[in-house]
Design a protein that fits this description.
This protein has 481 residues and is α+β, with helices and mostly antiparallel strands. The protein is built from 15 helices and 19 strands.
């Protein structure tokens, strides 16, 4: 249980830990949370970690957590922190081990009546074609030269090798490629860990899911996004696999060893970091970008495999499966945001937080610009997921950010003590949800009871004006590691 910290209520769903709570704080801590979710956030060290983040050199405005927040490595998961460019702090703990873990949503022309008798068949076909599980490799095998090309080019590499669709690139955050990526800053060990992992989802909370749109909340936004009642869509949640994990490990080790040179002694060694413009900071930022490109390429190749599976099972032309959007939720980006009313270049860390740019932003695809950026919020495998649209208040209050999911409330070990995998799989099947997974333990770890109420989380960010609810998705088939 976390210790109690003073909380001032700033609004219906916004709370503040004032700077007076700890002498090291340079900015306040802001918590977006409905009152009924506060106990879950207080349950672990998330608020203590928020105070630690608020103490970082160069941090601007506020350290922020979203309603799905819980304890992470150094930074709380569900956290947002922006530091001054170019000399503010950058920390691998502010991005996470799974660099560019993110979500994409594929749209099909199918509706529920087209698939209801073949959902289980599709789940089995997809499970056999998209490898999942810890360390599991796939059939896209790279050599080190090809790996370097993937790290430079991102999703475009998949397209150039007939493993993706050219029109997808417009609908990926940063068009699926960060230009500052430098493969030379990625260790050979990291590269070797990723040589056979493109087109795979890994383990943990990663998944591929067939969903049915069960509710539309905003007709105008839904029309702009190409969403309709009862439509079948495919949700993908995965990241940079072992490659990204190794990049984070390498640079955390480096920063622990050099941060004293920059006069930084964090309150928690898990917050190891350096100034962004230090040589080590630049090396990490460029390696992180390379890992992010790997993740975008990975999700593009998974999409290619999904299109093939839809063709096999439903005779659906792959060209009729369109990408709505692909967005990262573990990444650092250089962005302009207001500080004291002045547009300012910042280093925005999002760890378990989703970019949610509001209407008119030039980084949003033109097709959606009048509505706002599509935001994809997965729930757990037995609960709803959501499509939202970025809103103006996210830019003013949260550095263009919102939540990224339901957020854990039980550890994986605790979840397995409360529910058995076989029983959960059968219970979900009775609800019309078909689960394909590598182990019953993996199913139990990700049981719905291990997560917060995703409806409350999404309602919080909607009420806060960070993102506007557009559609609810109900799972039909889930592929997990």
């Amino acid at each position: 249980m976390s210790k109690e910290y003073p909380l001032n209520r700033l609004g219906p769903v916004l709370w503040e830990i004032p700077m007076s709570a700890h002498p090291a704080m340079r900015v306040p801590g802001h918590i977006y949370c409905r009152e009924e979710l506060l106990d879950a956030i207080r349950h672990d060290r998330a608020l203590e970690q928020l105070i630690n983040v608020a103490s970082l050199p160069g941090i601007q405005r506020a350290a922020i957590v979203m309603p799905d927040a819980h304890e992470g490595y150094g930074f709380p998961i569900g956290g947002v922190a922006a530091t001054r460019w170019p000399d503010g702090f950058i920390s691998p703990g502010g991005i996470g081990y799974d660099i560019n873990c993110g979500v994409r949503l594929l749209l099909t022309p199918l509706v529920f009546r087209d698939v209801e008798n073949r959902v289980e068949a599709f789940s089995k076909d997809l499970y056999s074609s998209v490898p999942s599980g810890t360390g599991k490799g796939g059939d896209v095998l790279l050599n080190l030269n090809e790996m370097n090309a993937v790290l430079r080019q991102g999703a475009a590499w998949a397209v150039s090798h007939q493993l993706g669709e050219p029109e997808d690139l417009e609908f990926i955050e940063s068009n699926g490629c960060l230009a500052n990526a430098d493969p030379e800053k990625v260790s050979e060990q990291a590269k070797r860990r990723g040589l056979d992992q493109l087109g795979t989802i890994g383990s943990g909370n990663h998944f591929v899911e067939m969903d049915r749109i069960s509710a539309i909340f905003n007709d105008q936004a839904a029309a702009a996004f190409g969403l309709s009642q009862d439509q079948i869509v495919i949700l993908i949640h995965t990241g940079s696999r072992g490659l990204g994990h190794q990049v984070a490990t390498d640079y955390l080790r480096l920063m622990v060893n050099v941060m004293d040179q920059y006069g930084f002694k964090p309150r928690d060694r898990e917050l190891a970091g350096v100034p962004f413009n230090a040589p080590e900071g630049q090396s990490y930022f460029n390696a992180m970008a390379a890992a992010a490109n790997f993740a975008w390429c990975n999700r593009e190749i998974i999409s290619h495999k999904i299109r093939q599976s839809l063709q096999r099972v439903f005779n659906l032309n792959p060209g009729h499966v369109k990408l709505l959007y692909d967005v990262a939720h573990n990444i650092a980006k250089i962005e302009d945001h207001p500080v004291a009313g002045v547009p300012t270049k910042l280093i925005v860390h999002r760890k378990g937080a989703t970019r949610a740019f509001g209407p008119g932003h030039l980084d949003i695809p033109e097709k959606y610009r009048a509505i706002g950026q599509p935001v994809l919020i997965p729930g757990s495998m037995g609960t709803s997921s959501f499509v939202l649209a970025g809103a103006p208040n996210s830019m003013d209050s949260a550095f263009g950010s919102t939540c990224h999911g339901a957020g854990r409330k039980l550890s994986r070990t605790a979840a397995k003590k409360q529910v058995g995998g076989p029983e959960l799989k059968e219970a979900l099947r009775k609800e019309g949800i078909y689960i394909q997974a590598g182990s019953f333990g993996g199913i139990a770890e990700e049981a719905p009871l291990a997560y917060k109420d995703v409806d409350l989380v999404v309602d919080t960010v909607h009420e806060a004006g960070l993102a506007i609810k557009v559609a609810r998705l109900k799972p039909l088939a889930v592929i997990k590691g």
